[in-house]
Amino acid sequence: GPEGPSLSKFCLDDSQIFIWSPKQGKSVLCINDHDSAIIDFKWSNQDQNQGNASQSGVGFIISLSKDQTVKIFNIAKTQAECVFTLRHDCQIISLGLSPDNQLLAVGGQNS
């Protein structure tokens, strides 16, 4: 998985998130678990196993996709592991984490 300072990017027309290492000059991790384009994501260095911030910058990524799912990925290992999927009946257009990373808010359309 990513170690040390990393950058991340996603493409609105793609279902992937890439984690880049400026030090290595290449992508070190690709998250490709959605069926449709990524709308947004949040990165937390909160270590799910330790309950505190990781100094190495790894922890978890929460992604939001046009496939109407929010997924939580543990990125502290050598590969991204989806640990939770939230499915919604309607389109979700935004997400946010509380400052302590204990709560997740999602916003969208209800019908």
Explained architecture:
The protein has 111 residues and is mainly beta. The chain contains no helices and nine strands. The model has no long low-confidence stretch (mean pLDDT 79).
Quick synopsis:
The protein is mainly β.
Main features:
111 residues; three-stranded antiparallel sheet; single chain; four-stranded antiparallel sheet
What class do helices, strands and sheet pairing give? Answer: mainly beta
| Strand neighbour order, sheet with most strands | 4-5-6-7
Shape: globular
Determine the oligomeric state from the structure: single chain
> What Rg is obtained from the alpha carbons, in whole angstroms?
14 Å
Ordered list of secondary-structure elements with their pairings:
Elements: E1 7-10, E2 17-21, E3 26-31, E4 38-44, E5 60-65, E6 69-74, E7 81-87, E8 92-97, E9 104-108
Antiparallel strand pairs: 1-2, 2-3, 4-5, 5-6, 6-7, 8-9
